[in-house]
Design a protein that fits this description.
The protein is of the alpha/beta class and about 375 residues long. About 40% of the residues lie in helices and about 15% in strands. The chain has two domains: about 130 residues, Alpha-Beta Complex (Aspartate Aminotransferase, domain 1), CATH 3.90.1150; about 230 residues, Type I PLP-dependent aspartate aminotransferase-like (Major domain) (Aspartate Aminotransferase, domain 2), CATH 3.40.640.10. The strands form three sheets. A seven-stranded mixed beta sheet has the order 2-8-7-6-5-3-4, sandwiched between helices. A three-stranded antiparallel beta sheet has the order 9-10-12. Strands 1-11 form a two-stranded parallel sheet. The longest helix is centred in the C-terminal third of the chain and has 21 residues.
């Protein structure tokens, strides 16, 4: 199997697995217990918290959560006032703000241009006094474009609002603006384990709790933490920091090779801006392409027809529709994601087979 679906999830780093194993095999204490074993577990959690924090701005606290979806729900539901967000956001944001709208909060959803980027003049007009929260994704999970988070944060603060950044796809790869007030991240997008994420909360920002109970995490999150998951997250984050230059150079080589493959076949078009963009995300379309048939023909290559979180809905990608693609064009698009463990040879072979299979469809038609 050639794995090219890094936006859905990344392979678990061996170093992250090694950090987790002791806490799965023998060290089973509750990190919130006062005895010696509990204190040892808590110490491991705090080490991991520091490792995760080193990839985030200073002046805030990392609160572990069950994943980025929980973190985003907490950030949105724990604030008040009108919400401004973008049409290309993840469903964890868009569905949550719609739930808040149903409760009476005012919501403005800004369009994005054909390149996937928000118009800052439109944002300036929408982010007015009375706005309580501005929410935007750093790196889009479907098309990889990088939004102007610092500029949006400046507009939010001028209106007296908080800035929430969904940094899930960009964390450890693209710098997170220090002007944000809330930042959501996830372990399994940085070669860590599934089932754990975090919300970074700027000092002085108060959130209403999402989960009520023991209040184990200082900003107000309740629930017993898993030392194993925390340790895996921390090890993955430390490795992202240590390997930042090496990983970035590798992804850039893969991007250039992939773009050369698709540009050699004039039938393919890139969805979203080539820059600013995280180059580990390649979203392309070929008009008339039957993506379901393509995936069936290439079952030993893992790639995506869109976001893994919504791929079972049967609906075309809301992100691709937001950038102006027709329903047919959106359904004729594929997302290819690669990273640390992708070799140039396997990527080239997989892309050659994808392009050949797509061309065969056209000949058969």
């Amino acid at each position: 199997m050639t794995y090219l679906d890094y936006q859905a999830t990344t392979p678990l780093a061996p170093e992250a697995l090694a950090a987790m194993l002791p806490w799965l095999e023998a060290q089973h204490a509750n990190p919130h217990s006062p005895h010696r074993a509990g204190r040892a577990a808590k110490a491991a959690v705090e080490v991991a918290r520091g490792q995760v924090a080193r990839l985030l701005p200073e002046g805030g606290r990392v609160a572990f959560t069950g994943g980025a979806t929980e973190a985003l729900n907490w950030a949105i539901k724990g604030t008040h006032g009108a919400i401004v967000t973008l049409a290309s956001e993840h469903a964890a944001v868009l569905d949550t703000v719609e739930a808040e709208r149903a409760k009476g909060r005012m919501v403005t959803i800004l369009p994005v241009a054909s390149d996937g980027l928000v118009d800052l003049d439109a944002a300036r007009a929408a982010i007015r006094p009375g706005t309580g929260l501005v929410a935007a994704m750093l790196v889009n999970n479907e098309i990889g474009v990088i939004q102007p988070i610092a500029e949006l944060a400046e507009l939010a603060h001028a209106a007296g609002a908080l800035m929430l950044c969904d940094a899930v796809q960009g964390y450890g790869r693209v710098p997170v603006s220090g002007t944000c007030d809330l930042v959501a991240v996830s372990a399994h997008k940085i070669y860590g384990p599934k089932g754990i994420g975090a919300l970074w909360v700027r000092d002085g920002v108060d959130l209403a709790p999402l989960l009520h109970g023991g209040g184990q995490e200082a900003p107000g999150r309740s629930g017993t933490l898993s030392p194993a998951l925390c340790a895996g997250f921390g090890a993955a984050a430390a490795l992202m920091k240590e390997r930042a230059g090496e990983d970035a150079a590798h992804v850039e080589r893969l991007w250039e090779a992939a773009m050369a493959c698709f540009q050699a076949d004039r039938g393919w078009s890139l969805n979203g801006a080539a820059s600013p963009r995280y180059h580990g995300n390649l979203n392309v379309r070929r008009d008339g392409l039957d993506v379901a048939r393509l995936m069936s023909d290439l079952r030993d290559i893992a790639f995506s027809a869109g976001s893994a979180c919504a791929s079972g809905s049967g609906r075309p990608s809301h992100v691709l529709r937001a950038i102006g693609l027709s329903e047919q064009q959106a359904r004729a698009s594929i997302r290819i994601g690669f990273g640390r463990y992708t070799t140039e040879e396997e990527l080239a072979d997989a892309l050659d087979r994808i392009i050949a299979a797509a061309a065969a469809q056209r000949i058969a038609a």
